[in-house]
Specification:
5 strands; alpha/beta; about 170 residues; about 15% strand; five-stranded parallel beta sheet
Length: about 170
């Protein structure tokens, strides 16, 4: 059996953490069900356009809350986008487990999505969730990109160029 000195173990641990951080997704996308895939596609296509790394997971806040907690607490992502319909608990549950910004995307499953929109927008004080329009995955992606651009000048430049092209 090989004994690794304490100093070497610390170095290896720190190196693994640093490598994991820089290879990790910048945005975690959670959806409450596979039926939300059309909204998730709107998000991922926008993120792909800007070359931003992301990870997509399906995790129901009601059927598997421990999976949601594990995903949120285990991510190095700077922003979380949570897509949910009906009672739309997923964004709020995600927000309760992190200090990272959470963007909720309400899905028009019932009541034309108004139930989901109100659930996301009416979070209790102290656990905020940003809400975008019903089924508006693109705006969720754009908001996430704007949040990242605060500390990423290259991404900021891409967003400025994108908005200039919108004027044409």
């Amino acid at each position: 059996m090989v004994t690794i000195p304490v100093r070497a173990r610390r170095f290896i641990f720190i190196r693994v953490l640093v490598v994991s951080y820089f290879m990790a997704e910048r945005i975690l996308i959670l959806s409450g069900s596979k039926s939300d895939s059309s909204i998730v596609e709107k998000i991922t296509s926008s993120l792909d356009e800007f070359g931003v790394e992301y990870k997509c997971e399906v995790a129901s806040a009601h059927r598997n809350p421990s999976k949601v907690e594990k995903l949120v607490k285990g991510t190095f992502a700077d922003v979380i986008i949570a897509v949910a319909g009906l009672s739309a608990a997923l964004p709020g549950v995600a927000a309760s487990h992190t200090l990272a910004p959470v963007i909720g995307v309400p899905v028009s499953a019932k009541l034309e999505g108004m139930d989901a929109l109100l659930s996301i927008a009416q979070m209790p004080p102290g656990i905020p969730v940003a809400a975008v329009g019903i089924d508006n995955g693109k705006n969720a992606a754009m908001l996430a990109l704007q949040i990242l651009a605060i500390s990423d000048k290259e991404l900021e430049g891409k967003l400025v160029s994108y908005r200039e092209k919108m004027k044409e």
